[in-house]
């Protein structure tokens, strides 16, 4: 599977080798890591991906993606799907960045790229959530076009839905 490219980022589809390196904390010389990468969330996502690959096969294109800067290939976080689309065409996403690059719009840009990709693959609804006190993550989902869709005692839910799917969506937006 090819990388997804946005204006400033490359969303690199995670492979089993990539995930094993993330879990082990061992960078690939061809893909340098920003200080603080991988985060606990990246390691958890890589483990989930490896479990999925072992139990049901590689979920790509609805797997995990490493977020890299286009200018130097530096890995700064991750974004991905929690699995393939359900019977209604809905997927759930997650994302995260190392602290040193937060606040620069990278998370919203990566999420917009993933949303565009999902839409181009026939997904009709993308869902996400953030803890009530994680205002930054709520702003990321809003900036990417997702809208509040409810809440419970722990989290606020967001989603974006399309009645038609785009066949030539542009992830560089």
UniProtKB/TrEMBL annotation:
The lineage of its organism: Bacteria, Bacillati, Actinomycetota, Actinomycetes, Kitasatosporales. This is GNAT family N-acetyltransferase. It holds the Pfam family Acetyltransf_3. It comes from the Bacteria. InterPro entries: Acyl_CoA_acyltransferase, GNAT_dom, Ribosomal_N-acetyltransferase. Residues 9-167 form the N-acetyltransferase domain.
